[in-house]
């Protein structure tokens, strides 16, 4: 799906300010021949729990899974404040130009995961957390 797919809840239920920034960035990127794909946007709490269950079985423990998938009530995807952008060329474009739109990579281990940081337009993006377990928002 793209950031323009209004009929898809994963896109339509994103925070409007985040979605606006993504659409501006996607439009400019497209001029340069780069197409954004939304691999994951808003997620229902139920879907987030499913992802976490899958990650626990893949990575062996809830602790290991936490480096990749947040619990539902902490996930920025469930609140509509995060988006996973692909393919890697689009993520690379965002890593170079995203700050101009207030779009920032948050985790060093997730080059595809972007959130809105309006202050980045003036100040640049804040330092990244190595992974979600280092993010104070993810503490239980
Ligand atoms: Zn993400």
* Major sheet strand order: 1-2-4-3
Mean pLDDT over the residues: 96
What are the secondary-structure elements, in order, as H or E?
HHEHHEHEEH
Indicate the CATH architecture of the domain at 9-43 and 78-138. Answer: 2-Layer Sandwich
Number of E-type strands: 4
Number of helices: 6
Shape: globular
Helix/strand class: alpha+beta
CATH class value of the domain at 9-43 and 78-138: Alpha Beta
Radius of gyration: 15 Å
Report how far the terminal alpha carbons are from each other: 32 Å
Organism: Herbihabitans rhizosphaerae
Protein name: D-alanyl-D-alanine carboxypeptidase-like protein
Keywords: Carboxypeptidase, Hydrolase, Protease
Domain D-alanyl-D-alanine carboxypeptidase-like core: 13-115
Give an overview in words:
The protein has about 140 residues and is α+β, with helices and mostly antiparallel strands. It has a domain at about 10-45 and about 80-140: Muramoyl-pentapeptide Carboxypeptidase, domain 2 (2-Layer Sandwich). The protein is built from six helices and four strands, in the order ααβααβαββα. The protein has helices spanning about 10, 15-30, 45-60, 60-65, 90-95, 120-125, and strands at about 35-40, 80-85, 105, 115. A four-stranded antiparallel sheet has the order 1-2-4-3. β3 (about 105) and β4 (about 115) form a beta hairpin. The radius of gyration is 15 Å and the shape is globular. About 35% of the residues are buried. Bound molecules: zinc ion. Zinc ion binds near residues 77 and 110.
